[in-house]
Amino acid sequence: MSEPLENLIERLASEGGRVQRLRPPLTRAAFWLLGVALASTLAVLSFADLPLFMSRMGDRKLQLELTGILLTGIAAIVAAFHLSLPDRPAAWALLPLPPLVLWIASSGYACYQNWIAFGPEGWSLGESADCFRVILGISIPLGAALVLALMRARPLNPMPLTVAGGLGIAAIAAFLLQFFHPYDVTFMDLGVHLVAVGLVVLGSAASSRFLAPPEPQASRG
Amino acid sequence: MAPVARPEQGEDDRRWARLMTAAQDGGQADYARLLREIVPLIRAIASYHHRAPDRVDDVVQDVLLTIHRVRHTYDPARPFIPWLVAVARRRSIDALRRRIRTEAMEMRDDTSYETFADPLANREREGREATEALAGALAALPRGQREALELVKLREMSLAEASAVSGQSVGGLKVNVHRAIKALRAKLKGG
After folding, report:
1. Which of residues 84-103 of A touch B (CB under 8 A)?
2. How would DSSP label each residue in chain A?
3. Is the pTM higher than 0.80?
4. How do residues A14-28 score in pLDDT, each as one tens digit?
5. Is B4 within 8 Å of chain A by CB?
6. ipTM score of complex
7. How many domains does chain A have?
8. In order of start, what are the domains of chain B with their CATH numbers?
9. Residues of chain B found within 8 Å of residue A21, distances taken between Cβ atoms
């Protein structure tokens, strides 16, 4: 990179046509979440056993758990859109932590109660493998859609936002799983869910290289 | 801490925000003016992380290119300088990390630059190596042979002059030079 500064400025100015400004991050996150909500509603209405789900929703523990999962997903997605901009504080990454604690605590408590009730059967793999596949299967298209949305900001530091985004889509996938998962959660289920969420977050973090800004073409020794 | 915006920069901020907003709308003259005016602040941020002037220049250019690429992310409702400082600091730190990574994984070997496909390009290094080998072989010769070779071949004395200096006969010098060359040839060929 050895172009004289004045030449570079002239060149950039001559290439500086009108650009479309990004909407505020909260608006962009809201649009994205709305799109996901519409698609998810269609999927749930088409494939889920709603009467069974509604009967389970009478359980306060499940209500608390679902609230934690959903809030984690929304908060993490909102955080990811904020973190995609250069001048927003890194503290946005902390936004999903309180609902995440609620999610893990409520799931863990439910597992504990089921472990007391079921005993060693609570440790069997059971339907957990299906849950694993469902979480990954929902997360992959959601992740692709999120990466496409975040790419518009051309983020300078993609790692925090891909981690937040990964947590968000994993939480949304775990929330949707509840519509197709008419079982009480066991420790094994929780473990499988957490592994699946962890894999989604890791996979999302790995995608940060696609969002990373280009490196300078050359530099002096 | 790296340089940050000061309260008295409020006027700059408002002017630069106006220029950036105009640049986003396609105002090329405003854009060029903005880029020229923000160079000192970018340079100050880059100088905080990098000492070498050429590296600072590289970072300044990279920051200008990055601003060009992400200028659509500036929100005119927000102050401009924090946006600019965030971009400049991010790219400056990225350049610093790249440099640390490069220096951690690479080592300098100045002589390696002498090895090229063109034999002439390697002349200096190979000449130095040949000199060292020859000096070693010369040192291993018997004293009479070494003296004869040095006087007759290296100092280019006549046999009479060499005989006068060394005390060896002319015939003895001839024999010693012949034997010395033969020994050197065998030594250097054999490696």
Report:
1. 85-87
2. ----HHHHHHHHHHH----PPPPPHHHHHHHHHHHHHHHHHHHHHHHS-HHHHHHHTT-HHHHHHHHHHHHHHHHHHHHHHHHTSTTS-GGGGGTTHHHHHHHHHHHHHHHHHHHHHHGGGGGS-TTHHHHHHHHHHHHHHHHHHHHHHHHTT--SSHHHHHHHHHHHHHHHHHHHHGGG--SPPPHHHHHHHHHHHHHHHHHHHHTHHHHSPPPPS----
3. no
4. 998 899 999 999 999
5. no
6. 0.78
7. 1
8. 10-105 (1.10.1740.10), 123-190 (1.10.10.10)
9. 24, 72-76
